[in-house]
Predict the 3D structure of the following.
Amino acid sequence: MAYPATRADAVVDTLHGQQVADPYRWLEDEKSPEVQAWMKAQDALARDAIDKMPGRDALAKRFKDLFYVDSVSAPARRGQRYFFMRTHKDKEKAIVYWRDGESGPEKVLLDPNGWSKDGTVSLGTWAPSWDGMRVAFAQKPNAADEAVLHVMDVASGEWSKVDVIEGAKYAQPHWTPDGKGFYYEWLPTDPSIPVDARPGYTTLKFHVLGQDPKNDVVVHERTGDPTTFLQGELSRDGKYLFVSILRGWSENDVYWKHPGEKDWRLLVKGKGAKYNVFSWKDRFYVVTDEGAPRQRIFGVDPKKPERANWKELVPEDPKASLEGVSLVGGHLALEYLKDATTELRIATLEGKPVRTVKLPGVGAASNLAGLEDQDDAYFAFSSFTTPRQVYRTSVASGKVDLWAKVEVPMDPDAYAVEQVFYPSKDGTRVPMFLVYKKGLKKDGTAPTLLYGYGGFFVSMQPSFRASILPWLDAGGIYAVANLRGGGEYGTAWHDAGKGANKQNVFDDFAAAAEFLSKEKYTQPKKLAIHGGSNGGLLVGAAMTQRPELFGAVVCGVPLLDMVRYHLFGSGRTWVPEYGSAEDAAQFKTLYAYSPYHHVRQDVTYPALLMMASDHDDRVDPMHARKFVAAVQNAKGNQAATLLRIEANAGHGGADQVAKAIESSADMYAFLFQVLGAARPEGGVAAEGR
């Protein structure tokens, strides 16, 4: 391909005695006219190449049928009002509705479809007050993380002209019981604050409705440490206010006080452990992995909050990981993972087991959602072959009824799902889900798409993904590997894939690829890998470490320059997960696997489709630009290397269905073409590199 010209500068840093070349540092400056022109040329090249790929239009048509669907979320009850979201076949964005009583007429509350002519303004968090009279919600330009909080009167639909709060990137409104105000996390928008330092400026504030937000009282000062997160929480009765100081995804400190009190009281200092605390009827419930890698639950009397007085309510289950806890209907609702599949259990407030909720099959379910003193609760369920369904259950009786489901044009009986286990490089047993059309012949010819993430305690569960259906229908296999670094088996599983242990994640992924070829599911030239964000780092490392295992790579909104990642976007908040090049020992680990620094001149890499967003304020798009430049300029590489840039989109991409259709059609057209797979409209693509 005739790529846009990309200059390589003689930029070399010496870090801890190691010379580190960075020839494409100039691509970090997105505001530079030269960089803007380069981005425009790269995006045009990618879109032109993909538009010419046969089958692309057929894919777009199929995704249109799959993505434009009617659906409804589980409702949230506040006072006598019910709040829920709907998607519509003829709308680009989901709409929030409300009704008086469970069976009252539906009324539109928040419709982001009309917030901007081009659809680039999105709805972020939204939280109704406990009496259901008002809702606080965030508007996000370009679907980015930066946001502005607003307040609406539910009955009239009027937006307050006074209650407008900027700096709501991390804000989650926590309403007082009387609905007269809320606590929220606030981040200053002062442009003089370096972007990598901003997280450390987060404070907890209290807003009184009708008052100028500039006068909002700071309830907890900033930490001053950009590697931390600050999060607040208010008990439903308004008696207890909590603040958690998180250092990454592995440990945190928890403080509490009664609203109105001046001083905070330390509940627990996290030393290698994390604590999630909530309150009901003058008792704290603490969910923690302290001394229990798969988590357990304690009850705490706020009058005797010392650690020695904590009472264990739910002990650790050595065979299942506790993923989430909620208090509904006077009981504890416990969400567990067993080999990456969901199990929902009900226990008394003292931890005594009551029952396991009957699920419609093996898959992924949300925990029960409801109120502490209301019997009705809701949960969502899906599997690789079952579109999302919402169920209502009685906590008291255990009765489960289907409340709503999504109708998707597909035949669920046409597909098979299996879970396999394979050994990683060091012998660790790793699970993986495989989805394919029934009748698959294991002769090594099936085009296969392997997906992974492996970080931040995120568990990959067997949930429904409409985007994979055309791939399956064309004879493809979709594989999801449950890599270390995730939370599938608790804290120990996460710890085994973070920091100095990060290479384990890449070894797990390579072992998954080797297993798929060894067991005759596929072969390297028919195997593609896909990941986004931390998963983008995963596929970037896999591509540069083991290029011979793969035929194609789709890399989305990634981290790829691990030497300088902490200087951009929200990078410093991930230092507890990855480490920092400012530390000599951590630099050695990071530099050893940093994909950008390991692009070699003498290697033919798999074909690469890089998918970036132009307003990604979480993971800076400089990673995608620099890596693409390095791969395109690698003299021995003959594979196609394309950079597709989504306009007016944040880290999660654009939130319009039409944009999702275009993005998915481009991705799968690329995969069908490169892997020589059967196209949706028939025929076989010529394998192209």
Summary: The two ends are 10 Å apart (CA to CA).
